[in-house]
Amino acid sequence: MSRVPVIALVGNPNAGKSALFNALTGARQKIANYPGVTVERKAGRAALPSGQPIELVDLPGSYSLDAASPDEEVTSQVVMGRFRGEAMPEVLVVVVDAANLEQHLVFAQELIALGRPVVVALNMVDLAERDGLVLDPAALSAALGVPVVPTVAVRKRGLDALLEEIEKAPQQDRALRHEVAELSLPERRLNAHNMATGAILSETAAHRWHSRLDKVLLNPWAGPVILLGLLFVMFQAVFAWADPFIALIEGMIETMIGFVEATLPAGILQDFLTQGVLSGVGSVIVFLPQIIILFAFILAMEQSGYMARAAFLMDRLMAYVGLSGRSFIPLLSSFACAIPGIMATRAIADPKDRLTTILIAPLMTCSARLPVYAVIIGAFIPARTVGPGIGLQGLVLFGLYLFGIVGAMLVALVLRRTVTKGAASGFIMEMPRYQVPPLRDLLIGLWQRAFIFLRRAGTIIFMATVILWVLLSFPKADPGESQVEASIAGHIADGLNVVMEPIGFNHEISLALIPAMAAREVAVSALATTYAIDGDEDAQAAGLTERLAADWSLPTALAFLAWFVFAPQCLSTIAVARRETNGWKWPVVMLAYLFGLAYVFAGITYWGALALGL
Amino acid sequence: MDTQLTLDQIAPGARAEIIAVAWDALAPEEAKRLRALGLDEGARVAVAHRGIFFGSDPMAITLGRTTIAIRRAHARAMQVKHP
């Protein structure tokens, strides 16, 4: 066989599919989208015991082949070999949660009935045992008529046996299967109940700590307070824990600038490397630690099972604005980045609910805004505490996040009454059992996010910075004239400034906003490049933060922050929104309302701050 | 028939058995999802949690070893009896 065979992992949500996928493929994963739809396609390489390489595909979790959401539609089509451009999987690895057989065997039966080579991974047997459940894989295998391999993805247990069975699967004897294709759902459910009961060797009084945890975390009073506290700690941590790492990266960049200045002769090339590449890209890479901390919290919440509880707690609040707790997960992901957030809306079944969530997702403060906020807060908000363990800078950051959230809720309220009017949708969601987030899965997730960020820094941000440097550096200014004013970019900014000046923006901001259309964090590198080019030697030695503190008034800085709460300055988000909504109509609506709000609120902030005498 | 007991009237901590579901009262996709999760006629459930603060929406229903969050509107379509 010349082509690498495709092996699909398929199963219910919360069966531990992704953990198994991570254990089998390690960090060698390729994440892309299925063509035409934006369901994430996670694929990775592994090898069978014979050495035959295989491509493992992790399909979206599903309850049935009769799809109830776009996510499930992909799973169903791929499994049945009907997905265009996707090879029919040679073997289906059906992943079931050992502690939840009664539910997961319903879908498993449906998959086995397809008559394809099937191996069942009886996953998370350790957690089942911890819950007092001892299972007999052989009995289950006899009942299903397919091989059953007990696995513990987190500890890499059972993986070799699983790969062995995958290798043998194409030669399976289908006659062993008792399943007939035409069973009804209640019949399958009864079967599942009997098989699950038959596979249990012993069942002691189950550990009740899941329900004990739920008693606290879903308590009508303590639950919301704990959630709010957790989110608060998350945003404080982003600032407090990242400092030493940021200093480290800054030091490295300065060393590199020093090295370039010492090695290369003064001139265009040296300027390009120091002012353009290193100052520009470096000023964005500095935020990697904060982004990793933010993602670590979000991934840990997801992997521990807490995220579904957060959705439960938020449902009532979301219902007020016509959404459901389901929307909370995409929206919380949007705090890291609106792109995975918008993609996660695929799990929302109701189309209007989903559209509303897509439209407000950019209002969640994504990690690309973090560099912008961090630089401005660092320059204008004093680093003092306003209470035990509460820093003023972290508090302002929290306020900015809150500003975005409140804005999003109000926009959702308006949208649901106007353009996305329709029946209020419901909220149906399975709550996964609690689990200590497996360190490896957490690290793989973090590595993937960090890699995406660095790739952005190396490509789109690098390009935008370089183009801006060129536009800023030419034509050369006459002696005594400001280089920035004389440059091409300076002239473009002059035009834009006519519109931006009334809301308190200065020339440098107008200049930075243009390349920042590519990505928000470019605003920081653009400001760094602008000041690096224009500054004299002393000014260049001072960091961007010091320059801003010296050059901008407080109302201008606050207006700049308000602008970034709303402004849709991210080409990738707009592209994803276009793909998700199948056309330009909604991305245009999104652009128009967000720029409108940005302008109005930046203006209000500027004039309000002036009136208060700030 | 308005004296029928429905799932939304069950207090947190109490058990019930679903004896009939008014599927027509639910959106088709939601009905499909509820059935796939096992919230169907014959299911023995317990109400684990309800709402936040003074509200009683949504509800967390336990069914076997799973916990499922639903809205009160869904629970209202499910006729139950005490087991």
What gap, in angstroms, lies between the N and C termini of chain B? 20 Å
- Numbering strands along the chain, what is their spatial order in the largest sheet of chain B? 4-3-2-1-5
CATH class of chain B: Mainly Beta
How many helices of chain B does DSSP assign?
A: 2
Percent strand of chain A equals: 5-15%
Number of individual domains of chain B:
1
The greatest interface here is:
A-B, 45 and 36 residues
The biggest beta sheet of chain A reads:
7 strands, mixed
Q: Which regions of chain A have little confidence, pLDDT < 50, spanning 5+ residues?
A: none
- Low-confidence runs of at least 5 consecutive residues of chain B: none
CATH superfamily of chain B: Ferrous iron transport protein A (FeoA)
The span between the termini of chain A is 72 Å
The helicity of chain B comes to 10-25%
Instruction: Assign the CATH class of the domain at 6-203 in chain A.
Output: Alpha Beta
Summary tags:
heterodimer; A: 614 residues; alpha/beta; Rossmann fold; 7-stranded mixed sheet; two-stranded antiparallel sheet; 28 helices; 12 strands; 60% helix; elongated; B: 83 residues; alpha+beta; SH3 type barrels; 5-stranded antiparallel sheet; 5 strands; 34% strand
Topology diagram in text:
The complex is a heterodimer of chains A (614) and B (83).
Chain A: E1 6-11, H1 17-25, E2 29-33, E3 40-47, E4 53-58, H2 70-79, E5 91-97, H3 101-112, E6 118-123, H4 125-130, E7 133-135, H5 137-144, E8 148-151, H6 159-168, H7 185-199, E9 200-203, H8 209-217, H9 222-240, H10 243-263, H11 268-285, H12 288-304, H13 306-320, H14 328-333, H15 338-344, H16 351-360, H17 369-380, E10 385-387, E11 390-391, H18 392-417, E12 429-431, H19 439-473, H20 483-486, H21 488-500, H22 507-513, H23 522-534, H24 537-541, H25 544-551, H26 554-566, H27 571-581, H28 585-611
Parallel strand pairs in A: 1-4, 1-5, 5-6, 6-8
Antiparallel strand pairs in A: 2-3, 3-4, 7-9, 10-11
Chain B: E1 15-21, H1 28-36, E2 44-50, E3 59-63, E4 66-70, H2 72-76, E5 78-81
Antiparallel strand pairs in B: 1-2, 1-5, 2-3, 3-4
